[in-house]
Amino acid sequence: MEEIKKDVIPGNKTIRVILQFPDEFEDAQMVQASVKSILGKRG
User: What is the overall mean pLDDT for the chain?
Assistant: First the structure.
């Protein structure tokens, strides 16, 4: 899992923002390829 951490400092307070991106699974890649092929056939 990819994780990005960043501290944001508004005024005198510190807020830590953590974004997490799950790893892509084969199923997600297969779905993306299927959708692209379907959309590519339209017109």
Answer: 84
